[in-house]
Amino acid sequence: MRLLASLVPGDASSLSLVTAPVPDPEAGQVRVTVAACGINYPDVLMIEDRYQFTIERPFAPGIEIAGTIDAVGDGVVGWSLGMRVVLQVDHGGLADFVVADASALIELPANVAFETAAASLLTYGTSYHALRDRAALRAGETLFVLGAGGGVGLAAVELGKMLGARVVAGVSSSAKAGIARKAGADVVFEYPTNVEDQAVLARLFATQCPDGVDVAYDPVGGMYAEPLIRRMRQGGRYLVVGFAGGIPRVPLNLVLLKQCALVGVFWGAAMKADPDGSKAMLRELLQLLGDGQIAPPAPTIFPLERGGLAIAALKNRTAVGKLVVRP
């Protein structure tokens, strides 16, 4: 089989398309023919050895997969050849096949395309977990989404509206502004991507949210975090989702003065801590996708041999919406 492998630490240009034997499932496992693999920021981090854990090389990045069952190991019940599935793995999705525990599988409804599923599992899972479980977002509250033109940001905008919030979306380009408006944002504005003076951001955020923010959704971090914390209302919840702009240094006296909460969001850890509850939530999201109640924009598709370009686009923050690799 083919896989886009990380052989040495480095950026996306270090990846190599190589061949390897097709793996066989062990007891309790299945083999899945990968139809589509979503690209996510952990892919950027893991190939550069900057992720939460280090993976033994060689390995293929890719954690969000949709495909069909190709082989079934001993003792597997309820799954058979040809069934359409989605799953999240620690790595390995940028390949023709992946082997995973049968317990990781979720059946994919026939009315949800592979590419849509692979573009939605992590983004909508992360955002729904963040807004519903971690922030307990309520109807009528103001939700501020940074990075609203990216995959998780767009999901947060759409889910925030579904939950009844007023959504303010910050984006890094005019191209991303249009897609955030289409996702349902009430207010959309563009912020600078290269900023050295946080006072500029503080004034901009104050203009866009003069009455403050109840829930902030931040997958960007960096220089943007402190100015946004300054807009939090008493009792607000600041969701720490990711660090596309770097890990911020925040004066914690602001949290005390604002009487707000900093809330970590780690969807992967949540899935491992409560696999049954997490899978139930994903089934709910897949049902919403199938019914058209949530409608992510069509992802940009890359062939496997060009998967590194997708990872590079995500790192460089030039991606609009979700990127998917199709072997």
TrEMBL record:
CDD domains: QOR1 (cd08241). Signal peptide: none annotated. One of its GO terms (molecular function) is oxidoreductase activity. This is Zinc-binding dehydrogenase. InterPro entries: ADH-like_C, ADH-like_N, ER, GroES-like_sf, NAD(P)-bd_dom_sf, Zn-ADH-like_protein. Pfam families: ADH_N (PF08240), ADH_zinc_N (PF00107). It comes from the Bacteria. Residues 10-325 form the Enoyl reductase (ER) domain.
